[in-house]
Each structure stands twice: as C-alpha cells, then as structure tokens.
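HUMAN: Forgive my ignorance: could you write out one protein's sequence and backbone structure tokens?

ASSISTANT:
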Amino acid sequence: MKKIRSYLSVAALALSLGLAGCSTAGTSTGSTSSVSGTSSTAATGATAAVALGTVAEDTHYDADDLTWDAASEVAVALADGASSVAAGSDAVKVDGDTVTISAAGSYRLSGSLANGRIVVAAGDQDTVRIILDGASISSADGSPFVVQSADEAILYLADGTSSSLSDATNYADQGTDAPNAALYSKADLTIAGSGSLSVDGNFNDGISSKDGLVLASGNVSVKAKDDGIVGKDYAVLLDGAYQVTAGDDGFKSDNDQDEGRGWVLLNGGTLNVSATDDGIKAHNTLTIAGGTATVAKSEEGLEAQHIVVSGGATTVTSNDDGVNASGGSSTSGGGGMGGGGMEVGDYSVDVTGGTLTINAQGDGLDSNGNAGISGGTVVVNGPTANNNGALDVNGELTVTGGTVAAAGSSGMAVAPGDSSTQSGVQVTLGSPVPAGTVIQLADSAGKAVAAFTTTKATASLVFSSPDIAKGQQYTVYTGGTATTAAGIGAGSLDGAKQVGTVTAGQYTASQGPGGGGGPRW
C-alpha cells in the first residue's frame, strides 16, 4: 500500500542533521539478495548527517525494498526480435522488442535491445524491482525504459555488471505527458546496487522521476541534452558515485506546485556535475549533509530558495553566482529592506558544518534574504569585476562560528553584520594582487594567525575564524609561504611584505549591513 508521507520542511530537515545513520552497498548472501553492506560513512563508524530513518519518513525509501528472495526472480533475456521470459510468469509480455511488466515482483534483465523498450505498467500499490544484469537497451524513436505506473520502481544494478540506456534523438510521441528521458518514471524511483549504469539522454533529460527519486547506491554516469537527473517531488543521494554532464541543469528537484516539495538532499556518496545552467538546484530547499559534491562547470552552482550545508565536501565552479538563494516559493512573508536598501525576501543560506569551496565569476555566496555561518569552512574565490562580490547578502550575514575566507573584488564587498558573535577582519588592498599571492594576518606579538592563497586577482579579503579576537589589531602581509587546503591554512612570514593593519570587528559598509570598504593600502 502506498505510503502516506510528510515531506521535509526546512526546519525539520535542519533539526535532523547530525543524527546517526547507515548507508548502503550491494551484497548477495545465499538465496537472498540485498543491499546491506558498508559505505565510506558506515564502514568507519562515523555518523551520517541525516539518519536513514528520517529519510525513510520523508520519502518513499525503504531499505527493506532492497532485500528479496533470489528464488522469486523472473529472468528476462533480451535479444533483438527474440526476447524471452522464464516459464511460469504471466506478468511479463513480449511484443516484438517491447517488454512489458504488469505486476509486483523482482525481474532480472540481461542481454540487449538495439531498438526496444522496457515498460512497467503495474498497479498503483505494486513495488516493481528490476535487476539490470548486464543489460543494454536503446530506442530509435523514444525512451528505452518507461515506468508508466506502479507504487515504486526499483532499478537495481547487479554487482560486477555494466548496463546502459540510450534514447532517441527525436521522440515519435512528444505529447504533454509523454516520456522525455532515457530513464523515465511516473512513479517513485529508487536506484541501488553496486553495478554500473550509463545513461544517454539524447532527446531531453537523462533520468527523470515525475514523483520522488532516491539514489541509494550505484555507479552511474549520465549525459543529457537537457537536464541530467530530475526528481520532481524530491531528489536524494544517499550513496554511490554519480557523474552528470547536462546541457541545462545537472541535478535537481523542480516541483513548484505542491507545498513542501521540490527539495534536494545530498547525504553521502559522490556527485560530480558539469552543467550549462545550474549545477545542483531545488525549488524549495537544497541540503548538503554529507558526501562529496563537485560542480565542475555551471552558470550558477547551487541554487534554491533555502540552501543548507551541514556536512560533506562541496566544491563549486560557476560563470555567475556560486551559491544563490533565490527563486523558490515567495519573496513575501518576513520580507523587508536590508541595510543597503535592497529587498530582503524569504531566502537563506545556512552553513553549519562541512566544507564549501566556491570559485565564481559572479557573486560567490549570494542570498536574496539572509545568510548565516555557524560552523564548517567556507572559502570563496570570488569575482574580479567590481559589479559583483565574493559575498552578496540582501539582508544580514551572521557569523557565529566556523572559518570564512571570502576573496574577490572590492567594489561590492560584504562583511559580517552586527548580529555576528564571531569576529573577523576586512582587508581592502589598494590594487589587486595576482593569483598565487599569499595574504597573511599576524597578531600583535607578530605571530601568523591566518594565511590565504589567492586563485585569481584579488582586491578584498574578508576573514573570520575563532582565532580572530574582536578589537585586536592585526598586521596584513603579502608574500611569504603557506601550507593551505582549499586556499586557507598556516603560513610563514619569512620574506613577506607588510602592507597595513586592520582591527577585528571594524567593517565599512559598501552594500548591505556592514560590508565593503575598509582600509586601503
């Protein structure tokens, strides 16, 4: 029976972070096939950022669905003009090169179709499990894999196997509700297993679920003319390795009609995205709680109404904004005008843990509402042009913990606001220093307390960490040597040049509350 689910709100998701959980990897034991092993998170005994129990409550995901009796599997051998089904099953029909599955159960597919299709047309209370065991399916006039109806479809990638799906460049049926992806589902979709899958979306999208999507594991590569991976109600990555190359958005959830839906959760595994438009996008909330996410190419790297980074390692490269809290449901409700006269909407960026490294040509970290940093590490290699800033917050940027290093141009620099309880400094250089320059801070005793290595021409640096004491004066140096990770670390002042001094907690407004300006040298 279809689960009744309460979808994650922003607050509920944030409160769930840090709870213990386990991840999944494919194994087989005796007559029972299952997903119950270890992962990079569970194997070390470390806690996952969001417990799987919480994920199960708010999605269709159920780890029990990934365990079944191998003896109950129905074997389907795919072959051009000669596909066959094991005797004793009337739930699979073969019509030419179209194979239709009409009932709940576990179906193991092997072989290939050069111009065929797998169709799942089961009941709305049926869970249909498809095991891809070295299956290669292509279509010359549409999608090769379509879930028309079911409660949930599970695509399980058999251990040690490689499978592929490739659709047509032009679909015969382009109606409003017609499939538009190489892997297309109108039902909740789960992808799991330790095998490999390559998906070529030559017409439009690569993988698309018109309901919810959970990526539990798997080694999957997706190339798509339009969007790479889409889950309408939600898109969740629990584990596995996913590589996406997209002509539009990379990984997203786009339900803009139903309250509380349209959210993305990255909780583990690895996601690598190269996109022409947005890298990772949610209509509602985008949460990165664990795993490794890399947006190697994008117009805007991360985009959602609310963006939460609580764990994991995230690296973003963008032609425009790196992290952008905008769009979404509303610009009203709690809105107003910021200190710089800009409208403050219902948008937010919150970093509570993990690492977030941004390389942006536009604004680095941009919120059309407020932003808060209470933990983790945020490094912004921002713009060189003065019409954008490393930090751009319409409301207030509140820093209460963590480490922040935001470098870029000086024309629109934003610094922490009055509500911040952790101090910082703002360095504005008289002229930009080139890429590879070490900028260092030394305390009144002459001890180097922070070092930052630029990756591009830099005229401004905002730095905040627990090592910076409010009201204390720090000497700014350029040069010397430094050992850094993601640009920040420890340095040596040998050979460095003194360029001025700054006082922690003293910021000069250029835009918004407390940003920009500062002493120039």
In short: Helices lie at 10-16, 52-58.
